[in-house]
Amino acid sequence: MNVPFVSFLPMERELDSDLRNAFNRVFTRSWYIEGQEDAAFEKAFSAFCGTKYCIGVGNGLDALMLILKALDIGEGDEVIVPSNTYIATALAVTYVGAKPVFVEPEMETFNIDPSRIEAAVTARTKAIMPVHLYGRACDMDPIMSIAAKYSLRIIEDCAQAHGATYKGRKVGTFGDAAGFSFYPGKNLGALGDAGAVVTDNEDIAVKVRALGNYGSDYKYHHIYKGNNSRLDELQAAFLSAKLPHLERMNAARRQIADRYLSEIKNPAVILPLVSEEYVPVWHIFGIRCSRRDELEKHLSSRGITTNKHYPIPMHLQECYRDLGFSEGDFPIAEEISRTELSLPMFYGMTDAEVQAVISAVNDFA
Ligand SMILES: *Cc1c(COP(=O)(O)O)cnc(C)c1O
After folding, report:
1. Using an 8 Å Cβ cutoff, are 150 and 127 in contact?
2. Best mutation site among 86, 110, 136 for ligand 1 pocket (most ligand atoms within 8 Å of CB)
3. Total-model pTM
């Protein structure tokens, strides 16, 4: 049996007519940017998150970058980001002219280790960007305490965690503002690129909206040197069609994860940590294995496609050579990059597919 790493087919089959209706609605109206679909999705998504404001933007990277800009973070400033994340987190900081300062993750959760943040704070530090990686919330209480102690902003990277909770509270509601991505593969995905900023802070909301629309507060009047990063009507309409199904689809991912967690029994494999205070949405189900590449080959020989998140940590990326790091500088992120393997995880995976993955992992000698 072939098991893909991810497939959109089950979701697409189920929502086929909803998505086509969304397209027809926009096409019939013949209005493509800044219209009622964008406004309707923003309203629905802020309600989903439990925030006062939502601003649709072009993608997740822009969401983070526009928040940083709105907070006047730039040249000469430092922003703390995890050493284990997708490149966009660090690039958002770089794009506004600030310096990303990497902090190691916890090996067990893959998320930024709160106990290591304080040592990275300097007089130039302006913000912490916790990333709720793989769909599991960061340990927010200690992060909030450190931010309060040093008057730092918190910008949550929620690109992998739509709907995840920490101590009963949804991600995206802890920081000054949060960035979401609706890249097709994310838990809530558009049919193209899209993103959003959510916040309870009106000043940030107003400024992010202007910054993403050429720095304009009203037509042909520009108060900032802004960007063009808007959520278009088609993507907003597709997202509105999918949002009502997000909780159910996240729950389906949790069922798959529960089977992996209870039925994978192989001493060579370390399963991801789960704890009561966290409800993850399993964007990625990442296991660790010291013979990761052999396990990858074994699964591949059984028709199972896996992935690595992420094979090269931030500090060793070619584009960040200017920061002057070398191997050994962030040993935990490096160890994760050498040992993490992501198993197939998507809405609509069949029991037989889940079983095939479990059996193949358990057969690995
Ligand atoms: C996907 C992702 C982003 C960027 O989102 P795009 O929509 O691809 O720009 C940012 N941070 C993390 C952790 C992501 O996984």
Report:
1. no
2. 86
3. 0.98
